[in-house]
Every structure is written in C-alpha cells, then in structure tokens.
Design goal:
Blueprint (H helix, E strand, L loop, with lengths): L1 H15 L5 E6 L7 E9 L24 E6 L2 H9 L7 E8 L2
Antiparallel strand pairs: 1-3, 2-4, 3-4
C-alpha cells in the first residue's frame, strides 16, 4: 500500500512541477513598446506539439507585417487538457499584437 501511495504522490508532484510554456517573437518593436492585441488563436497540436494540423501565417492576423509581436502560451487550461490526454492532444494559445497608436 505504501508503494502505491508513494507512486501516486510522485506522479502528482511531477504534474505540479511542470511550468507553462511561453514564447515571444517581436519584429520591428522593442520590449517596452505599448501594444494592442489584435487576435487570439487556439492552436491544436498533437503528441506534445510535434504534429500540428495547420500552419497560420502572420499576415492573416496583423495589418503591418513590419511591426508586430506574437506570443504563444500554454495556458493553465491548455496544460490541463494536455495532462488529461497524457500529451496526445497538446493545445496552446497564440496572441497577436500591433503597436498602440
């Protein structure tokens, strides 16, 4: 019984120690520049993000392709869904920003 308890405790600790994934790409902008959010897109990926059924182009979401910022995050809900499916379905969320005028 003690082995089962320790195994469950270990798996729970591993799941709690995972961090959220955040990636930011800035083109023609500095880090402190004011921005406005122009779009939010859900990304549906499989097998820990290795397989993505579609690829979005930045031109579809921003007007000025010389000055924009893209942030991709794995939110809490995305991580929760990934944990439930044991990494088979791994969603993430992408935020598109333009300079504030």
């Amino acid at each position: 019984m003690k082995k089962i308890y320790m195994c469950v405790l270990g798996i729970g600790a591993m799941m709690m120690l995972q961090s959220c994934y955040v990636q930011t790409l800035s083109v023609g902008m500095n880090e402190g520049d004011p921005v406005k959010q122009v779009a939010v897109v859900k990304n549906h990926q499989f097998i820990d993000g290795l397989v993505e059924p579609r690829y979005d182009k930045v031109e579809n979401y921003v007007e000025d392709t010389q000055h924009f910022k893209v942030t991709t995050k794995q939110t809490f809900m995305d991580g929760f869904l990934s944990g439930i499916t044991f990494g088979i379905y791994t969603p993430s969320t992408t935020y598109y920003y333009q300079p504030a005028e």
